Structure formats: structure tokens, C-alpha cells
């Protein structure tokens, strides 16, 4: 009997752990007894539509050093896409093409590693498979630094981003404490609708530093007068204030604080400001104090040299679990992680029907935020702490981390 | 005979290596046979003026673990200041006070770790010591991520910042290459007048990535039309363009590109834009392509978890050298480093008269920049490469790097 093959793709925004899940899938197929070749679709689902496929047995599998390097490399070895499949009731041509490709390559299982939007693709492909009576397993593997997927305890990529944010806040605190003059530093952290990653800034606190001294998440409404009062009353007690904010903070009407009116730069072109800049200038205009804002930016999702080993291991395990699920006949599902104990921290892997996950978002519970809406509570710290533990042994060459080469992404040179 | 004591202080902006020089001074005094106590002046020269002194024998010296942790900790254990001593011909009251303090504490040598402005303080104290016939040795120990001090081959703190910038550029490249759509990413790097640190972005290039594809330093005039042409012609050949720019790029008239006109944010307050944002909007307005800008910001000078071991070792050695120089009777000088060979990389430590260093700035030689002014040449790479080599063994606790606690900086809580 001919062994079936598998296909895997990556989609959405980068994280530090999405290649660890890919490595887990490749390893899972490698040790499975029922699957043969693992194909990689380049640039998400687009690779199938454009016939841009890699044979991962050839590029990765035969060399386990590659597998370990892949596990530690940021962003996506297979590239990504931001592509929303149409509803197949309106237009099933791309579905037709995808499943003909699956058949041609004798695919038994398709794995899609991604966030919320990618799970929409998993849902649609699952529904289509059911409709045409295909037995191809369709399994989603989560990833997002936003940590906003339903049902699963947390998402691969989040723990590493949280570690990077917390370490950066600690380093910014050291940078800030050196001057004996009053100052305010605002640090803007990714997370448009969910404040998980901004909350991780609280992990920077230790025996000698309470920074960040204020934390604002998008789960509560931001009130600029209350904010200015928070800053003023802290400035009476201490010199340096460090504030962590989500990029998605908004007022009671839902308007983002970074909405910004049209602005002109030195070339006379219009600009928009981020939330951090907006608060920097709000303070400048209202309180006589030195103030600056720092946007951590894309490094929080791609600085693989400071990953959480827990995150990488769990991402890898979720890739392997996806293969196991497919072998067991599970389809139309996403791999999940359940926390079975917090001290000691233990988890179990499972799965949930994709229809309960796609297109929903998990936000920080209001009861994990203090009443004033300017800090997080111990429940949040307890939830976050295990996720940033452990450091991978990063290999350096010529002074820089060694990552998996991506020259097959034709646009990389 | 009573042994003399020493005093040390730190000044100017933070770097990752300035505490390594402090550790070197403390160790140098510890193993010297002629010096006893090493006092730390908190917040630079202000600590002497405000009687805010630490006995470093008590807080650091007796525990060598502390010395190693201190060597790896970012920013300043002793805090910093931005304080310019007046000319003593105009007002010698603070000089009077400082030297009375020195006498009271039986100080034989004063070490000041800092950048350009701090060397001005070393010069003034040296001149004053000469004038009053004091035999107290006054020695400057360089540090600055800008690498713009005269005479010395390079400055402590620069190598680590260069390593962080190069690693970040590599990680941003991985983050960028994943999408099969044309895009431009602009990365703004610190360096108002000198482009050394921005040039280090070129170290991110490897076998599979040429990013950054364009590099603009403040040593050449920035021309927006030439810039747009550079971007347009690259976009004809490739999908993703990554551009490194100094925050200090300026046009032929000397006006900073980030000068910016008054802008309004969502609260109606005026804002200024950085060079990265200005170029982002210049491209948006002229070329139909996805574009974003990233400001690496303060992390490039405080992310001690990604230090260069070469940099930390050299910073430590320069601290030790300062003590040796003082013992030999040298004064009115700054410690220097000379590169005696590049392959293999070897250095020697020396000193130079402070009057030849203070208030001067070393810029990137024009012949290390290509003629078009949009890249650096192999001479620059050869100069930079040895400086980012080696990684310290960072200690982690609860998932975060362990740094020297700074609770004596009263404003840190």
C-alpha cells in the first residue's frame, strides 16, 4: 500500500516559535509510520495555488541539525501570506484547485500554522473537504504573539514575545534609573485588541524595581484625565515613571488613542502617530517633566535570540501533536494546550473543533486587571510567569545568531 | 604610610559596557598595592558635590560574583548626570568643593567613565589640579555607543551596540522576507553626528541575505530625489528592501531630515517626527509600495543580554588600565585602545592627553563610504567585524537576565 504524504504551510504575522511548530510537524511526519513526504507550501495557501512547493524531506528532514536550527529561527521558513479564501458557496474555483493538488500529491493531511485569520482558512478547507467527501485531515496549529485564540490556554509565540517584552522593560528601567531628574518613559507594546503581551511587561518587576509603574490594556477604556492624574500622583512619590501601554488603547467611545490627525513632516507629508507618541505629547503639554516614548516594534515578534525555551518546546510539541491527531483520523480541528497545573507548571495537548475557534478572539479577563485599570493583578502574573521560562542554546557565527537560511524565498536577496 | 583611596564616577548616556569599565576600575584598585578604598560618586560628578558617595569595597568588591554581574549589567550602577562644570576662571566654587572632598577622603586618583562631554569634565578637573598643584591623578575612561572619540581605535559600548544593531537587522530581515509582496522597511539607528553604529547594520549581511540593501550615514548629505531613485531601481530587481539610516541624516544645507514641522496628534498636541518616519512618508507619497519604519531606540544601548564579549572584556581592561596609569603617575589623560592587528585581532591599551580628545568628534572616513553615499565599503566591515565577536554567559532568573541591583539609586522604585 502506498504511503500518504503531508503538506504544511505558515500564515499570518511572524513569531519566534512558528518555525518550531514547523519543525515539530516535520519531525512528526519523519517518525510516523504512515506518512512519507512532507511538502511545504511557500507563502501559505498561495504556494498550493501557485505551484510553489518545497519537498521538506530534502531541504530539512535528512539533517537533524537543520531541525534544531529551524526550531530556533524567527519568522517563517516557508514564508507567509495574508490571503482570505472566498466563501466556496460564492466561488469554489480555488478550493477545486487546492484539492486537485492534494490528490495529485497523494496528500493525507494538511497542516496550517497560523493565527486567527489562518484558522478561518482551516475552517473553510475543513467544510469544503466535508462537502466533497474528502478524507484529507485538515489541522490548524496555533501561533500568535497576541495570545488571543479561544479555548487553548495560550498560543505558541506568545511566551517568547512576553519574555522579550519583559527583558526589554527591565533593560529600559536600568537605562532610565540613572538620572536623578524626574522623567516619564512610555513603552508601546503590540496588541491591537488584546492586552496579553502588554501585561507581560509586569514580569520585569523585581526586588529593586517596580517598573513598569503603570500598565494600560485595551480591555479597559483609556481616560486621559485619569491617566494624567495617575502620572502626577506617582511623580510626587518618585523620580522615574515607566509606563507600558498597548498599541490598541482607546477611549470610551472606542476611538484609538493613536488615531491621530493628519500631520506634516519635514517634506510636508502627512503622518499618523502611535499611542506612545500621543501620550508622550499629552504629558509634555500638561506636566512639566522630561518624557519620551519607546515603540518596541517588530523586534518583539522576531528577536529569536531571546526566545522562551518553554515556548519553543510547546510549539514543537504542538506540531508533533498535529501529526498524531491526523494519524488518529481527527480533522477540522486545531491543536490546543491545556494547563494541568501551575506549580509545578504542566500541560497537556489536545484539540478542539475549528468552528469553535476561528474568527473569535480571547481578551484579558477584566478580573485580572485592577479596578483603576492601570495595572494587572497577581492572577495575571501567575498565568504569565511559566511561559517565559528557559533559554535556548543559541549558536553564534561571526558574532550573530545562526538562523535557518531562507534563500528559497526568492525575494530575500 | 597611609594608603591613598580612589574615586570613580560615570557620566553621559548609558551603554552596555560602562559597568564593565567600572568593574575593571574596582578590580584594578582591589589588586593594586598602593590604593585602599574605592569610592563611587553617585550621578557622576554631582555625587561629590552632593555628598552622595558609595563605598564600593562594601557594595561590590568583597564578592567576585558581584564583579562579574556588574560587568554584564547595562547602564550605570553609579547613575549618571548631564552636568557641565563651569569654567573655573569664571567660577571655581565647585572645583574648590570637589578638591576639598578629595582631600578629606585622601583620594589619590579620580576616574571618570564617560563620552565626549565627560572628557570635558576630565580636562577641566585636570587643568584645575595643575593650577592648584594637586597631585591627584585624573583619568578618563571612554564609553559611547557613538564611537566618536578621537585617537582611540574604538570606544567601549560601541561593539555591543553594533552587535545588537546587526542582530536586530538580521531578525528584521527574516521578519520582512516572509511576504511575497513588494515592501520597504526603514530602520532608524542612533548616531546624530557620526554614522559608526548605522554602518554596523551592514554586518547583518550573510550568504542568503543582502539586507540592509541601502545605508545612509550623516557623513554624507542626504538627497531625497537620489534616495527615491535608489529605492525605485532596487524595487525593479527585488521584492523587499531594508534600509538602515542614522537618526542624524541631513540635507546639503545641514537640516536634519527629521526636523519636521509642527504636527498634531489625536489630542491636538504638536509632534516632531524622526528621520525614519519622515522617509516612510516620503516613500508613501512617491512610490506605490508597502512601507514601514522601525526605530531601534534605547534598546541598542541597554540590551545587555546581547553584549559583545570582546567589548565587555576591553571595557573591563580599560578600567584596569586606568588604575595602572594612575599608579604610574599619569594624569590629565584618557585610556586608549590601539588595534595592533586585525587578523588575528589584537589590541594594546595606552593613554592620550585629554586636551587632544575632549570636545572633538571622530566621524566615519569618507573613503569607507561608497561614492553614491548609500552603502559602506569593505574597509568598514573589516574594522567592525572583530568588535562584535563573543557572547557572555548571561545568567537568567525567572526567565529574565540577572543584572546588578541598583536600589541605591533612590529614584529606581
Please describe the topology of this protein:
Two copies of one chain form a homodimer.
Chain A: E1 4-10, H1 18-31, E2 35-41, H2 46-49, E3 53-55, H3 56-61, H4 64-71, H5 93-104, E4 107-114, H6 116-132, E5 137-142, H7 158-176, E6 183-189, H8 196-199, E7 214-216, H9 224-237, E8 240-246, E9 263-264, E10 270-271, H10 275-286, E11 290-295, H11 299-302, H12 309-327, E12 333-342, E13 345-353, H13 378-384, E14 396-397, E15 400-401
Helix pairs in contact in A: 1-4, 1-12
Number of domains of chain A: 2
Q: Give the % helix of chain A.
A: 25-40%
The most extensive interface between chains reads: A-B, 94 and 94 residues
- Share of residues in strands of chain A: 15-25%
SSE order of chain A, one letter for each helix or strand: EHEHEHHHEHEHEHEHEEEHEHHEEHEE
The average pLDDT score of chain A comes to 93
Shape verdict of chain A: elongated
Q: Write the CATH fold name of the largest domain in chain A.
A: Rossmann fold
N-end to C-end Cα span of chain A: 43 Å
C-alpha Rg of chain A (nearest Å):
23 Å
Query: What is the CATH architecture assignment of the largest domain in chain A?
Result: 3-Layer(aba) Sandwich
Give the low-confidence spans of chain A: 261-265
Question: What assembly state would you assign to the polypeptide chains in this entry?
Answer: homodimer
Number of helices of chain A: 13
Explain what the structure shows.
The structure is a homodimer of 413-residue chains. Chain A folds into 2 domains: 4-157 and 304-361 and 395-412, Rossmann fold, CATH 3.40.50.450; 159-302, Rossmann fold (3-Layer(aba) Sandwich), CATH 3.40.50.460. Chain A has 13 helices and 15 strands. Chain A has helices at 18-31, 46-49, 56-61, 64-71, 93-104, 116-132, 158-176, 196-199, 224-237, 275-286, 299-302, 309-327, 378-384, and strands at residues 4-10, 35-41, 53-55, 107-114, 137-142, 183-189, 214-216, 240-246, 263-264, 270-271, 290-295, 333-342, 345-353, 396-397, 400-401. In chain A, the strands form 4 sheets. Chain A has a 7-stranded mixed beta sheet with strand order 3-2-1-4-5-12-13, with helices on both faces. In chain A, α1 (18-31) packs across α12 (309-327). The first copy, chain A, starts with a strand and ends in a 12-residue tail after the last strand. Mean pLDDT of chain A is 93; it is low at 261-265. Chains A and B meet through α7, β9, β10, α10 and α11 of A and α7, β9, β10, α10 and α11 of B.
